[in-house]
Fold each of these.
Amino acid sequence: MVAAGPSDTTRGIHGMPGRTAVTRCAEPIADVELVAVRRQFGTVVAVADISLAIKPGEFFSLLGPSGCGKTTILRMIGGLEAPSAGEIRIQGKRVDGISANRRPTNMVFQQLALFPHLSVYENVAFGLRLKRLADTDIRKRAGEALAMVGLDALAMRGIGQISGGQQQRVALARALVNEPAVLLLDEPFAALDVRLRQQMQGELKALQNRLGTTFVFVTHDQGEAFAISDRIAVLNSGRVEQVGTPRSLYDRPLTRFVAGFVGDTNLFEGRVVAQEAGRARVDCGGFGLEAPAQGYSIGDAVTVSLRPEDLVVSSGPASGTQLCARITGAVFQGPYTKLSLSVQGRPLRALAPSAALAELKLGVAVAVGWRAERASVMKAEP
């Protein structure tokens, strides 16, 4: 989010002044900051000394497989879990010793925990009633929150009378009605079908853009994280593998895990044989790959990642730096076809325009080239 000037503010969902914009010359205080945070259950380390800084107004996602620690991190930010070590700060204030109900956060859980015996309106108003607000304030704020998620016309419906997507919106309205500084979302769309999930992703991102509220979102779905996030932390076994924008994670992964988790890829093991002008040449055992890379020395063991769409498959004999391959499988996907290839017994995956493959059949020999500028080089792992 780009700040417009020292006097600019965003507007909260009830029209009250929201976050004060930060001047371009000042470094904004992170809305959420984790400093060497650790969470241990007995001898099991769920979160291993993680440090993160989430910017004001950012849609930040924690992405990783089941058991990687992402939900534990979210619960520690919200005060539902206590860190074993480290510090958690929200808007510059240390909160790891403060109870959940005193933190400027709200959470939307995977299990929405809506009250089935209450109407849509009463579910949203519930937290306001606990705060003992005046009835006029409750009606105004709950009504505005429902309008914000497009459910004002269904306010008097029962929870069992609305669809799954509408229930998701009720949960969002209930979480946002108190105008939290940070909204925490733990895989809120996991139970929805694919089409509704994609619709809700778009609505959630548009809502966050409109409000300017900091969202911290947990998901194991790379496509979902890419669709809605400003930045993503990729987690593995309780550790942060890489933090970056969706494009930077996809185009320039720093580890084998990130390369494979955020999309399909081909991995080549090799050694650096030349390094100059920001490029490295890697001997991958029978063929060489040249890719953008810095900081490597001749002889370093490395891994090269090359996405399937960056392989170029053509009919005819291989020439120059091309490899000779054989087609072992093909999956038609409309304008593109996923190809399985074999190169000297090594499996490769390619994504090629279907129109260019009309004459290619299983078992046929083909030539495989690659877009070297799209390759990523990373240190070899044990």
Amino acid sequence: MAPPRFPVEVIVTPRFDLFYALHALSSEAPTPLGGWKENAARRLPRGFAEAARRVAPIPIFWPLLADALQGTAGEMTFQQMLSALKTMRANELRANILGGIFHQRSTVHSLLAGKKTLAQVLTDEDNTDTELLAHFGLRPYRGDSPAAQAMSTLMSDATSYREELSEVLRTFWQSGFRADWELLDESARTEAARIRSLAERNSIADVASALRLPVVFDDASGAMRTKSGTVVKREQIERCYLIPSAFNTRRWWAKYEAGGDRVALYFPVWTGAEAASALAHRKPAIEKPARATTKTRVPNVNPEAVFRALGDTTRYAIASLLARNSTTSAELSRSLNVSKPTITHHVQALRAAGLITEEADGGSSRLSLNRDTVAALSDAAVRDLFSSTGELQLLTTRHRRGGPNPI
């Protein structure tokens, strides 16, 4: 009997390329994206570079900040990314970012619990993350360095840090990256289809080799090995996402905790310089904000994520209310007699599944149920459930039996 396959899923999303593009834009290192970079720099508004440096004082911070969105749905639109970031709890944001800097969980827990200060951790001679800290400009430690100041702001006022990061991302998106992404979308989906076909016909070991992934998969032993020697067993992998990327020239990848000892792996696969370089020849343009009446284009609906989100009775009640009238989180809390933190948790789950749309209303946001996602759900479910090709994904359900309840 053949060994079980690794749970692979191919998706198209800007959740990593947005941050990788900002890294390329702020870095002085040579890059094959030079043509795009020159064009992108011209269209940025005055003051953008200064604001960007406050949240990412050195270029390597940008791929680190992509980790802020760990724990969210795999395939996300920019609006879903921004909404998830804006509603993220302060300690969750801190934990997500700190986890990318400090690989020792005990260090992150000490910082979050207030048992140690940032200065104490960064000056600790016994810290095993010394090389990584130097990489992020945090060693040797200087309290007045831009990197240390950015981390101090994250620790002392995560809400302000989150708002400034959100505003930088929004400005970058509206100043032209949105148009870039729309032009890249077709080629990304073509590449996704090629990768999906490759994954269906070959073992993950052959796929990893063909795509030049920075890890090694061994089907025989059922494990993945990193360059540093870390081993991740097949049964620990919740999902392995392959993502066409126009900006991941460094071939970065991510491993996020997915509950228990399980992890989600993300491999943005660089498609070569051609796609991003072609953007250098288009005329730079400032993106106009979409009107409130514009109908949102629904991305590929993930039936599993939608069904899982609506499988909770409280979330289904929230969806029912939002389908009838747009409302705020505070109003939902009063209507359902549920605490505001609980409402925030459930709204995040619905948003991650693509079920929430938002509209600014003064100082708050009014939430509505995304009718397009619900309308597209039936066709997406039929396509997934009755497909006669592709890999049948049942590992998630089997491994969760007897374990913690899904969100």
